[in-house]
Amino acid sequence: LFKTLGGIDAMPICLKTQNTEELINLISKISPILGGINLEDISAPRCFEIEKALIEKLDIPVFHDDQHGTAVVVLAGFINALKLTGKKVEEVKVAVNGAGAGATAVSKLLLNYGVKNLILCDRTGAIFDGRIEGMNPFKREMAEITNPDKEKGMLKDVIKNADFFIGLSAANVVNREMIKSMAKKAVIFALANPVPEIMPEDALEAGAFIVATGRSDYKNQVNNSLAFPGIFRGTLDVRAEKIIDEMKISAAHAIANLIEEHELNPEYIIPHALDLRVPPTVAKAVAETAIKTGMARIKI
After folding, report:
1. In this structure, is the dihedral angle defined by the CA atoms of residues 169, 174, 179 and 181, taken in order, positive or negative?
2. What is the pLDDT of residue 286?
3. What are the start-end ranges of the E strands in 66-220?
4. Which domain holds residue 146?
5. What is the CATH number of the domain that holds 133?
6. pTM of the full predicted structure?
Protein backbone atom coordinates (compact mmCIF):
# COMPACT_ATOMS: atom_id res chain seq x y z
CA LEU A 1 0.00 0.00 0.00
CA PHE A 2 2.85 2.41 0.73
CA LYS A 3 4.33 1.77 -2.72
CA THR A 4 1.07 1.55 -4.68
CA LEU A 5 -0.69 4.49 -3.08
CA GLY A 6 2.17 6.66 -1.91
CA GLY A 7 5.11 5.80 -4.14
CA ILE A 8 7.12 5.07 -1.00
CA ASP A 9 9.63 2.23 -0.65
CA ALA A 10 8.68 0.55 2.61
CA MET A 11 9.87 -2.60 4.33
CA PRO A 12 8.20 -4.50 7.16
CA ILE A 13 10.45 -5.06 10.16
CA CYS A 14 9.15 -7.51 12.77
CA LEU A 15 10.72 -7.35 16.21
CA LYS A 16 10.62 -10.39 18.48
CA THR A 17 9.85 -8.58 21.71
CA GLN A 18 6.94 -6.93 23.47
CA ASN A 19 9.09 -5.17 26.02
CA THR A 20 8.61 -1.41 25.86
CA GLU A 21 12.23 -0.40 26.51
CA GLU A 22 13.57 -3.03 24.11
CA LEU A 23 11.27 -1.79 21.36
CA ILE A 24 12.30 1.83 21.90
CA ASN A 25 16.00 0.93 21.88
CA LEU A 26 15.83 -1.39 18.86
CA ILE A 27 13.79 1.02 16.75
CA SER A 28 16.11 3.88 17.70
CA LYS A 29 19.18 1.88 16.65
CA ILE A 30 17.85 1.07 13.18
CA SER A 31 16.36 4.53 12.59
CA PRO A 32 19.42 6.04 10.82
CA ILE A 33 18.67 3.99 7.69
CA LEU A 34 15.00 5.04 7.61
CA GLY A 35 13.17 8.13 6.39
CA GLY A 36 10.19 7.55 8.67
CA ILE A 37 8.65 4.95 10.95
CA ASN A 38 5.11 3.60 10.79
CA LEU A 39 4.33 1.63 13.94
CA GLU A 40 1.77 -1.18 13.72
CA ASP A 41 0.01 -3.58 16.06
CA ILE A 42 1.29 -2.31 19.40
CA SER A 43 -1.44 -2.41 22.01
CA ALA A 44 -2.40 0.31 24.46
CA PRO A 45 -1.09 1.59 26.77
CA ARG A 46 2.42 0.55 25.61
CA CYS A 47 1.88 2.17 22.21
CA PHE A 48 1.51 5.63 23.76
CA GLU A 49 4.77 5.37 25.69
CA ILE A 50 6.70 3.90 22.74
CA GLU A 51 5.50 6.47 20.23
CA LYS A 52 6.10 9.40 22.60
CA ALA A 53 9.64 8.24 23.39
CA LEU A 54 10.53 7.74 19.74
CA ILE A 55 9.12 11.12 18.67
CA GLU A 56 11.20 12.84 21.35
CA LYS A 57 14.34 10.83 20.55
CA LEU A 58 14.40 10.74 16.75
CA ASP A 59 14.57 13.38 14.03
CA ILE A 60 12.38 11.47 11.56
CA PRO A 61 8.57 11.18 11.57
CA VAL A 62 7.07 8.46 13.77
CA PHE A 63 3.43 7.56 13.20
CA HIS A 64 1.37 4.85 14.91
CA ASP A 65 -1.16 4.01 12.23
CA ASP A 66 -3.56 2.18 14.55
CA GLN A 67 -3.96 5.47 16.37
CA HIS A 68 -3.57 8.29 13.91
CA GLY A 69 -4.53 6.71 10.61
CA THR A 70 -7.85 5.74 12.17
CA ALA A 71 -8.27 9.19 13.72
CA VAL A 72 -7.68 11.04 10.44
CA VAL A 73 -10.22 8.98 8.48
CA VAL A 74 -12.80 9.21 11.28
CA LEU A 75 -12.33 12.99 11.34
CA ALA A 76 -12.84 13.12 7.56
CA GLY A 77 -16.14 11.29 7.93
CA PHE A 78 -17.04 13.43 10.94
CA ILE A 79 -16.48 16.64 8.92
CA ASN A 80 -18.80 15.45 6.16
CA ALA A 81 -21.38 14.16 8.63
CA LEU A 82 -21.52 17.62 10.21
CA LYS A 83 -22.25 19.08 6.77
CA LEU A 84 -25.14 16.67 6.20
CA THR A 85 -26.69 17.03 9.65
CA GLY A 86 -26.25 20.79 9.78
CA LYS A 87 -24.82 20.54 13.29
CA LYS A 88 -21.97 22.62 14.71
CA VAL A 89 -18.78 20.97 15.95
CA GLU A 90 -18.79 22.92 19.21
CA GLU A 91 -22.38 21.90 20.02
CA VAL A 92 -22.42 18.14 19.34
CA LYS A 93 -22.20 15.43 21.97
CA VAL A 94 -19.86 12.58 21.05
CA ALA A 95 -19.85 9.20 22.83
CA VAL A 96 -16.73 7.11 22.19
CA ASN A 97 -16.66 3.47 23.26
CA GLY A 98 -13.22 2.01 23.88
CA ALA A 99 -10.19 3.53 25.57
CA GLY A 100 -7.45 1.84 23.57
CA ALA A 101 -5.07 3.21 20.96
CA GLY A 102 -7.60 4.06 18.26
CA ALA A 103 -10.28 5.49 20.55
CA THR A 104 -7.80 7.67 22.42
CA ALA A 105 -6.28 9.11 19.24
CA VAL A 106 -9.70 9.69 17.66
CA SER A 107 -10.86 11.49 20.80
CA LYS A 108 -7.79 13.74 20.99
CA LEU A 109 -8.02 14.71 17.32
CA LEU A 110 -11.75 15.48 17.61
CA LEU A 111 -11.05 17.66 20.64
CA ASN A 112 -8.33 19.49 18.75
CA TYR A 113 -10.76 19.96 15.88
CA GLY A 114 -13.19 21.73 18.20
CA VAL A 115 -15.46 19.16 19.86
CA LYS A 116 -16.35 20.36 23.36
CA ASN A 117 -18.46 17.52 24.76
CA LEU A 118 -16.83 14.12 24.27
CA ILE A 119 -17.24 11.19 26.63
CA LEU A 120 -15.00 8.13 26.58
CA CYS A 121 -16.34 4.81 27.85
CA ASP A 122 -14.51 1.60 28.69
CA ARG A 123 -15.67 -1.67 30.27
CA THR A 124 -16.13 0.10 33.61
CA GLY A 125 -18.26 2.85 32.10
CA ALA A 126 -17.80 6.56 31.50
CA ILE A 127 -14.33 7.95 32.14
CA PHE A 128 -14.43 11.12 34.21
CA ASP A 129 -12.06 13.20 36.28
CA GLY A 130 -12.04 11.61 39.72
CA ARG A 131 -12.90 8.06 38.68
CA ILE A 132 -10.74 5.53 40.53
CA GLU A 133 -11.74 2.11 39.24
CA GLY A 134 -9.93 0.73 36.20
CA MET A 135 -7.80 3.82 35.58
CA ASN A 136 -4.20 4.22 34.38
CA PRO A 137 -2.09 7.33 33.65
CA PHE A 138 -3.34 7.54 30.07
CA LYS A 139 -7.00 7.26 31.06
CA ARG A 140 -6.44 9.87 33.79
CA GLU A 141 -5.02 12.21 31.16
CA MET A 142 -8.12 11.68 29.01
CA ALA A 143 -10.39 12.17 32.02
CA GLU A 144 -8.97 15.68 32.47
CA ILE A 145 -9.81 16.80 28.92
CA THR A 146 -13.11 14.96 28.25
CA ASN A 147 -16.55 14.57 29.81
CA PRO A 148 -16.92 18.21 30.97
CA ASP A 149 -20.18 17.45 32.81
CA LYS A 150 -18.67 14.40 34.53
CA GLU A 151 -21.42 12.10 33.30
CA LYS A 152 -21.36 8.70 34.97
CA GLY A 153 -22.80 5.32 34.10
CA MET A 154 -22.37 2.77 31.35
CA LEU A 155 -22.44 3.31 27.59
CA LYS A 156 -26.24 2.94 27.52
CA ASP A 157 -26.41 5.94 29.85
CA VAL A 158 -23.96 8.31 28.17
CA ILE A 159 -25.13 7.55 24.62
CA LYS A 160 -28.46 9.21 25.43
CA ASN A 161 -28.88 12.42 23.43
CA ALA A 162 -25.48 11.92 21.77
CA ASP A 163 -25.17 13.22 18.22
CA PHE A 164 -22.30 10.88 17.38
CA PHE A 165 -21.37 7.40 18.54
CA ILE A 166 -17.86 6.24 17.70
CA GLY A 167 -17.02 2.66 18.57
CA LEU A 168 -13.53 1.20 18.56
CA SER A 169 -14.34 -1.57 20.93
CA ALA A 170 -16.19 -4.88 20.59
CA ALA A 171 -19.00 -6.56 18.70
CA ASN A 172 -22.66 -6.02 19.53
CA VAL A 173 -22.22 -3.62 22.46
CA VAL A 174 -24.88 -1.26 21.04
CA ASN A 175 -28.52 -2.18 20.52
CA ARG A 176 -31.47 -0.54 18.78
CA GLU A 177 -32.84 0.99 21.96
CA MET A 178 -29.55 2.78 22.52
CA ILE A 179 -29.67 4.21 18.99
CA LYS A 180 -33.25 5.36 19.57
CA SER A 181 -32.11 7.23 22.69
CA MET A 182 -29.66 9.37 20.69
CA ALA A 183 -30.29 12.82 19.25
CA LYS A 184 -32.04 13.34 15.93
CA LYS A 185 -29.93 12.62 12.84
CA ALA A 186 -27.61 10.41 14.91
CA VAL A 187 -24.31 9.42 13.30
CA ILE A 188 -22.79 6.02 14.02
CA PHE A 189 -19.17 4.97 13.48
CA ALA A 190 -19.24 1.27 14.43
CA LEU A 191 -15.64 0.32 13.74
CA ALA A 192 -15.07 -2.97 15.54
CA ASN A 193 -13.96 -5.64 13.07
CA PRO A 194 -15.10 -8.03 11.76
CA VAL A 195 -18.36 -7.63 13.70
CA PRO A 196 -19.20 -3.99 14.49
CA GLU A 197 -20.72 -2.61 17.68
CA ILE A 198 -24.07 -2.68 15.88
CA MET A 199 -24.84 -3.92 12.39
CA PRO A 200 -25.55 -1.04 9.99
CA GLU A 201 -28.98 -2.32 9.02
CA ASP A 202 -30.00 -2.48 12.69
CA ALA A 203 -28.71 1.03 13.37
CA LEU A 204 -30.52 2.45 10.34
CA GLU A 205 -33.77 0.71 11.23
CA ALA A 206 -33.50 2.19 14.73
CA GLY A 207 -33.28 5.68 13.27
CA ALA A 208 -29.58 6.39 12.67
CA PHE A 209 -29.03 8.96 9.93
CA ILE A 210 -25.51 7.93 8.90
CA VAL A 211 -23.60 4.71 9.59
CA ALA A 212 -19.93 3.99 8.93
CA THR A 213 -18.03 0.79 9.67
CA GLY A 214 -14.56 -0.66 9.14
CA ARG A 215 -15.89 -3.20 6.64
CA SER A 216 -15.56 -3.07 2.87
CA ASP A 217 -18.96 -4.72 2.29
CA TYR A 218 -20.85 -1.73 3.73
CA LYS A 219 -21.07 1.92 2.75
CA ASN A 220 -18.73 4.46 4.36
CA GLN A 221 -15.75 2.23 5.13
CA VAL A 222 -13.24 3.79 7.52
CA ASN A 223 -10.00 2.47 6.05
CA ASN A 224 -6.59 3.68 7.21
CA SER A 225 -5.23 3.33 3.67
CA LEU A 226 -6.98 6.62 2.93
CA ALA A 227 -4.60 8.33 5.34
CA PHE A 228 -1.15 6.90 5.91
CA PRO A 229 0.23 6.71 2.32
CA GLY A 230 -0.57 10.35 1.59
CA ILE A 231 0.46 11.55 5.04
CA PHE A 232 3.88 9.93 4.73
CA ARG A 233 4.28 11.08 1.11
CA GLY A 234 3.67 14.70 2.06
CA THR A 235 5.78 14.45 5.20
CA LEU A 236 8.74 12.93 3.39
CA ASP A 237 8.50 15.35 0.45
CA VAL A 238 9.25 18.28 2.76
CA ARG A 239 11.46 16.28 5.15
CA ALA A 240 9.24 17.10 8.13
CA GLU A 241 10.64 15.71 11.35
CA LYS A 242 7.25 15.28 13.02
CA ILE A 243 3.63 14.69 12.03
CA ILE A 244 1.71 17.15 14.16
CA ASP A 245 -2.05 17.48 14.66
CA GLU A 246 -2.35 20.37 12.23
CA MET A 247 -1.01 18.06 9.50
CA LYS A 248 -3.48 15.32 10.46
CA ILE A 249 -6.40 17.76 10.40
CA SER A 250 -5.29 19.01 6.98
CA ALA A 251 -5.22 15.38 5.80
CA ALA A 252 -8.76 14.85 7.10
CA HIS A 253 -10.04 17.97 5.32
CA ALA A 254 -8.35 16.84 2.11
CA ILE A 255 -10.07 13.45 2.29
CA ALA A 256 -13.45 14.95 3.18
CA ASN A 257 -13.33 17.60 0.46
CA LEU A 258 -12.80 15.06 -2.31
CA ILE A 259 -16.52 14.35 -2.02
CA GLU A 260 -18.19 17.28 -3.71
CA GLU A 261 -21.35 18.85 -2.32
CA HIS A 262 -23.63 17.33 -4.97
CA GLU A 263 -22.18 13.85 -4.27
CA LEU A 264 -22.35 14.00 -0.50
CA ASN A 265 -25.11 11.85 1.02
CA PRO A 266 -25.56 9.59 4.08
CA GLU A 267 -24.16 6.60 2.19
CA TYR A 268 -21.14 8.48 0.87
CA ILE A 269 -19.29 10.54 3.47
CA ILE A 270 -15.88 8.89 3.01
CA PRO A 271 -14.10 8.23 -0.31
CA HIS A 272 -13.63 4.62 -1.33
CA ALA A 273 -10.50 2.96 0.04
CA LEU A 274 -8.86 2.68 -3.38
CA ASP A 275 -9.85 6.10 -4.68
CA LEU A 276 -6.53 7.04 -6.29
CA ARG A 277 -7.27 10.75 -5.98
CA VAL A 278 -6.82 10.53 -2.22
CA PRO A 279 -3.06 9.97 -1.65
CA PRO A 280 -1.74 12.86 -3.79
CA THR A 281 -4.43 15.19 -2.44
CA VAL A 282 -3.56 14.28 1.14
CA ALA A 283 0.17 14.54 0.43
CA LYS A 284 -0.21 18.06 -0.95
CA ALA A 285 -2.29 19.22 2.03
CA VAL A 286 0.11 17.68 4.56
CA ALA A 287 3.20 19.15 2.87
CA GLU A 288 1.65 22.63 2.70
CA THR A 289 0.69 22.49 6.39
CA ALA A 290 4.15 21.26 7.37
CA ILE A 291 5.64 24.28 5.61
CA LYS A 292 3.16 26.71 7.20
CA THR A 293 3.74 25.34 10.70
CA GLY A 294 7.53 25.26 10.42
CA MET A 295 7.79 21.48 10.52
CA ALA A 296 9.26 21.26 7.01
CA ARG A 297 13.02 21.22 6.51
CA ILE A 298 12.73 21.89 2.77
CA LYS A 299 10.12 23.71 0.70
CA ILE A 300 8.65 22.34 -2.52
Report:
1. negative
2. 98
3. 93-97, 117-122, 125-126, 164-167, 187-190, 210-213
4. 67-300
5. 3.40.50.720
6. 0.95
